[in-house]
Amino acid sequence: MTALPILLRRPLLHVAALSFFVNLLLLTPAVFMLQVFDRVLASQSGETLLVLLLGVGMALVLLVALDHLRGRLQGVAGNLVAEALSPVVARITVAQGARRSGRAPAEGMRDVAALRALFSSQGLLALFDAPWALVYVAVVWLVHPALGMAAAAAALLMLGLALLNDLITRREIESLQKAAAGATRYLEASLQNAEVAQALGMTEALLGRWRQKNQEVTALQGRTARKSVLMAACTRTLRQAVQVLMLGLGAWLVIHGEATAGIMIATTVLLGRALAPVEQVVGSWRVLAEGRAAFRRLRDLLAAADAEPRRMPLPAPTGRLQAQNLVFRAPQGERLILAGVSLQLEPGEALAVIGPSAAGKSTLVRLLTGVWAPTSGSVRLDQADLSQWPREELGPHIGYVPQDVELFPGTVAENIARLGEVDAERVVLAAQRAHVHELILSLPEGYDTPVDPAGALLSPGQRQRIALARALYGDPRLLLLDEPNSNLDGAGENALAATLADLRGQVTVVVVTHRSTLIQHVDKMLVLDGGRVQHYGAAAEVMRAMQQRPQQAQKQAAPAAEAEAHGAAGARVVDMLQTLQRSGAGRGEAS
After folding, report:
1. What share of the chain is helix, strand, coil (3-state, %, to 5)?
2. Is 39 or 497 the better-scoring residue by pLDDT?
3. What is the pLDDT of the chain when averaged over all its residues?
């Protein structure tokens, strides 16, 4: 991956090179005035004036061409940088969003947009022109030391104002960016639940909270704008005052015979040209500061991604899955979600994970996908730790249906094909393996039916069954299903059970479930409670243990606190067992 400073170096060098020639040509008007006052007016020569006009005209034409080229190159450079960064930043953003178990944060993409805006602003060109103030001051100094010292003092004063502007607005601009991003995130997250908000009459309360966050942004924006406007006004006024004083100093030197009228006019023009970029930088300071902050964040983001080592490609897995002593703590917290969970599956074996709510089942599945990294312990696929697999190579060998199914904009076929090139034969095969082929054909346009993530064309159950076909697309060796029947009706549940029966012995399956129709199609069971393993082993043995343990726990002569804990765990296990039995599961079904 290309480092951000290296990526920016080439376009910025081209802009700097053009700025060199543009600023050289900007010396032309001052030289022209000097020659007109000191030569043309003194000699009354029309031929000299004509030659000067021709020379200045050619210089100005060239100046227009180079300045236009510089501006166009600046915009093109911004587009090139954005095009180079957007895919990389989007990939990192998606990975971060997956690790956070939520929608991918958009700050990285906003930073790319801010960097592009920086390349489109005149403030960036002013930054390249500002160092030329030293050249202009040096030219004025060569003409007359007194004028040079005055020009240097004026330039230092303007530079001091620019630094002061940075000092008093930097923190507020950064706070403004954070507050604006927070308000935008809140509104985006709220709009995802617009249906619930409207149905429950929560819209006004939701908007009230958003207005409160937006008022904080407005307050910060007002303070920042007042300071920026004040500094810009002071800078413009100071520039005009300096030019007036410079003109007065030049006139004083002319009166005392130490300079000519041409020198007086030319040095005033040069000083104005030297101070103009500084004034423009102060006026564009907010865009420059936002671009600088975006650059720093993107640099850190890309540096963190570059720190991840490149992995050597590994052979296609057979499906042997092993988890050892998995421990996982909640991010930014001390709550232990999983504690010492271990399991082992041979290729083709199926495991059912059951347990009460908040037992850590979904967290375990996410760790088995490799998207989340355990706090300690390891997950191995064919003896290789999942962290050793390149993600783009591991993904096709894994099928995953999350608890909250999300389909992507596109057609049904494109979703099943995982948004890659649609291979009709493989798409249909995946749908048939998921026993959803007939359902898809019944849709208005079959496999070409468009999917709108926010639309109601597909029911939650249909989305869940299409997600199963997506998980089976290609040749996955490991299938991870997190409550894949939570939205299914009787027909859908039978189809899912038939799929698991077909896959048994061919694909390694881990399924989180609360229903007995799937238990009979697994080889092993894992019972979680409070993030700890209560039972693990062959399905029939676990079912027997679940029936026997509550009675045994009540008879144990344990200390009071331990007995209470066992009693609570036993009650939850009894509830789970009764749920399975009510849905038709018995010891014979499990075996």
Report:
1. 65, 10, 25
2. 497
3. 79
State which amino acid sits at residue 494. N
> What 3-state class would DSSP assign to 527?
strand
- The radius of gyration of the chain's CA atoms, rounded to the nearest angstrom, is 35
Read off the tokens for 290: 């936002």
Which is nearest to 466 in space by CA: 406, 518, 506, 510? 406
CATH code matching the domain that covers 321-590, chosen among 3.40.50.970, 1.10.10.10, 3.30.830.10, 3.40.50.300? 3.40.50.300
C-alpha separations of 173 from 110, 218, 286, 557 in Å: 15, 12, 7, 65
b (16+ CB within 10 A) / e for 317-337: bebbbbbeebbbbeeeeeebb
Distance CA(538)–CA(524), nearest Å, equals: 4
Of 584, 30, 3, the residue nearest 271 (C-alpha): 30
The domain 4-306 belongs to what CATH superfamily? ABC transporter type 1, transmembrane domain (1.20.1560.10)
Question: 């007042």: which residue's tokens?
Answer: 226
| 341 residue type, one letter | V
d(CA 263, CA 147): 10
**Alpha helices in 420-512, H assignment, sequence order:** 424-433, 437-441, 460-471, 490-503
Measured in whole angstroms, how far is the alpha carbon of residue 142 from the centre of its chain?
53
Rounded CA separation 371/152 (Å): 59
| Structure-block tokens of residue 312 | 């050597």
CA–centroid distance for 524 within its chain: 39
Name the least confident of 74-83, 281-290, 372-381, 434-443: 281-290
The residue with tokens 């930014």 is: 332
Six-digit token string for 538: 């062959």
**Angle of the 490-503 helix axis to the 424-433 helix axis, nearest 10:** 110
Strand order in the sheet with 376-381: 336-345, 321-329, 376-381, 384-385
- Residue type at position 432: Q
Give the least confident one: 76-80, 120-124, 170-174, 487-491: 170-174
Beta bridge partners of 326: 341
In one-letter notation, the amino acid at residue 146 is A
Q: How far apart (Å, rounded) are the C-alpha atoms in residues 65 and 213?
A: 47
The pTM for the full model equals: 0.64
Domain residue limits, the chain? 4-306, 321-590
Which structure tokens are listed for 46? 């029309």
DSSP state of 317: P
pLDDT exceeds cutoff 60 at 295: yes
CB 580 within 8 A of CB 513: no
Whether the CB-CB separation of 154 and 242 falls below 8 Å is answered with yes
pLDDT in tens, 344-356: 999 999 999 998 8
* Residue 285: exposure state from Cβ atoms within 10 A (0-12, 13-18, ≥19): buried
Nearest to 293 by CA among 163, 187, 169, 159: 169
Name the DSSP letter for residue 386: G
Environment class of residue 489 by beta-carbon count within 10 Å: exposed (0-12), middle (13-18) or buried (19+)? exposed
Determine the Cα–Cα distance for residues 150 and 198; give it in Å rounded to an integer. Answer: 67
**Residues 232-291: tens digit of each pLDDT:** 788 778 877 887 888 888 888 888 888 888 888 888 888 888 888 877 777 777 777 778
